[in-house]
């Protein structure tokens, strides 16, 4: 492998990582909301639990929490995260 191929691979990987972070990284706003996935009003243990339940995929976690927020707009951020966790647990029992 010559140096130009290695350099091209590094550039492609860097661009992909940059785009992923820009679109749906942990600290970016979730879909359709000004709140972030790592919202300070949510306990870190709750965030970790939901992320673990969705296989570490922050965009899936963001969509689940956003769905709960849409259905229950007057609830707290912590409650929305806990409801998303409860919904996954309920669905896995059936």
Question: Which tags fit this structure?
Answer:
94 residues; mainly alpha
Structural domains: how many:
1
Mean pLDDT: 82
As a percent range, the share of strand residues is under 5%
| Helical proportion, percent range | 55-70%
Uncertain regions spanning at least 5 consecutive residues? 25-34
Question: What is the CA–CA distance across the termini?
Answer: 52 Å
Order of helices and strands: HHHH
What characteristic shape results from the CA principal axes? elongated
Task: Specify the biggest β-sheet.
Answer: none
Radius of gyration computed on alpha carbons = 17 Å
Number of strands: 0
| Broad structural category | mainly alpha
Tally of separate helices: 4
Explain what the structure shows.
The protein is an all-alpha fold and 94 residues long. It has one domain. The protein has four helices and no strands. The longest helix is centred in the first third of the chain and has 22 residues. It starts with a helix and ends with a helix. About 11% of the residues have low confidence.
């Amino acid at each position: 492998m010559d140096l130009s191929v290695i350099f091209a691979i590094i550039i492609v990987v860097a661009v992909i990582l940059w785009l992923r972070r820009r679109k749906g990284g942990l600290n970016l706003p979730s879909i359709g909301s000004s709140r972030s996935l790592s919202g300070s009003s949510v306990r870190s243990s709750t965030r970790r639990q939901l992320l673990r339940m969705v296989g570490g995929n922050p965009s899936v976690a963001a969509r689940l929490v956003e769905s709960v927020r849409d259905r229950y707009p007057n609830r707290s951020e912590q409650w929305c995260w806990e409801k998303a966790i409860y919904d996954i647990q309920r669905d896995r029992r059936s």
